[in-house]
């Protein structure tokens, strides 16, 4: 593939990501949590196990202090709580509260029409492509 084709695809991916973020920002602005706050709620809500601040930072691609500040903000809004991690008492487990789950569900519902415009078959294909891109880029950024 030539560089022009690759750069064009990278640009399209950037624009799609940017537009999606703008749409999400519009839907969450009334909740006063910001895009990264929303992504943190999504990250915690979609985990089957309890996660630590460090694990959240790794999943979100943010620095741990930045995630710590987000957690503090969301705790002030009673959307998250910290609890002692039973498996390692030196760490805190971050949990979503009932109020956090309610906000998550409310925002998910507001975003649902946006995601219904993409057919389920295409969504699965998109998931596969995005996972491939993430895996490849992580490998190269780690070098």
TrEMBL record:
Keywords from the named record: DNA-binding
Species: Kosakonia radicincitans
Gene3D superfamilies assigned: Winged helix-like DNA-binding domain superfamily/Winged helix DNA-binding domain (1.10.10.10)
Pfam families assigned to the protein according to its UniProt record, in alphabetical order: MarR_2 (PF12802)
Domain HTH marR-type: 6-135
Molecular-function GO term, any one: DNA binding
SMART domains (UniProt xref): HTH_MARR
PANTHER family from the UniProt entry: HTH-TYPE TRANSCRIPTIONAL REPRESSOR YETL, TRANSCRIPTIONAL REGULATOR, MARR FAMILY
Lineage start: Bacteria, Pseudomonadati, Pseudomonadota, Gammaproteobacteria, Enterobacterales
PROSITE patterns: HTH_MARR_2
Coiled-coil boundaries: none
Protein name per Swiss-Prot or TrEMBL: DNA-binding transcriptional regulator, MarR family
Listed GO biological process terms: response to stress
């Amino acid at each position: 593939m030539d560089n022009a084709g690759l750069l064009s695809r990278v640009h399209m991916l950037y624009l799609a990501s940017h537009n999606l973020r703008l749409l999400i920002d519009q839907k969450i602005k009334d909740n006063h949590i910001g895009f990264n706050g929303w992504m943190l709620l999504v990250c915690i809500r979609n985990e089957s196990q309890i996660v630590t601040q460090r694990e959240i930072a790794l999943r979100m691609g943010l620095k741990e202090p930045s995630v710590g500040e987000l957690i503090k903000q969301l705790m002030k809004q009673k959307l998250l709580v910290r609890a002692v991690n039973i498996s390692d008492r030196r760490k805190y487990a971050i949990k979503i509260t009932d109020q956090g789950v309610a906000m998550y569900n409310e925002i998910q519902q507001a975003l649902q029409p946006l995601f219904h415009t993409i057919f389920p078959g295409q969504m699965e294909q998109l998931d596969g492509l995005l996972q491939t891109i993430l895996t490849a880029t992580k490998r190269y950024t780690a070098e």
